[in-house]
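Hey team,

Filing this mostly as a record. A colleague (T.K.) asked me to run one chain through the structure pipeline before their review meeting, and I want the input and output archived in the tracker in case anyone asks later how it was produced. No errors, nothing strange. Just documentation.

Input sequence:
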Amino acid sequence: MERLYPKDVDVHTLSPLALAFVGDGVYSLLVRERLLTQANRPVNDLHRLAVSEVRAEAQAAAIKKLLPLLTEEETAVFKRGRNAHTTRSGADYHNATGLEALFGWLYLSDRLDRVRELFLLCVEE
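Output structure:
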């Protein structure tokens, strides 16, 4: 599989919040697709379940699972996202932003196998 939009981008020139902007969409799409494959549910139920998995607290818990498994480069991207100056505060929100930056960076770097691998680790029970 390849990226959905076929134009190249230099991920090294993007801010951590720009990476998180894309990563939020990537992570959200993965959550939605996984929920849809689990059961044919009413849309309101799908939305409620998706929101519970993409909220900052859930993403902060997910990154805690991943941190020991990340490469040095992936950890650096996560930390850049986590430490980015945002209008919101709180450890969960900053960790969630770091997770989203990581997913955005991996996606835009055409590392989709790694995106899938890390996402499956995030959602495993």
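Quick notes for T.K.: The chain has one domain: 11-123. The domain at 11-123 is CATH 1.10.1520.10 (Ribonuclease iii, N-terminal Endonuclease Domain; Chain A).
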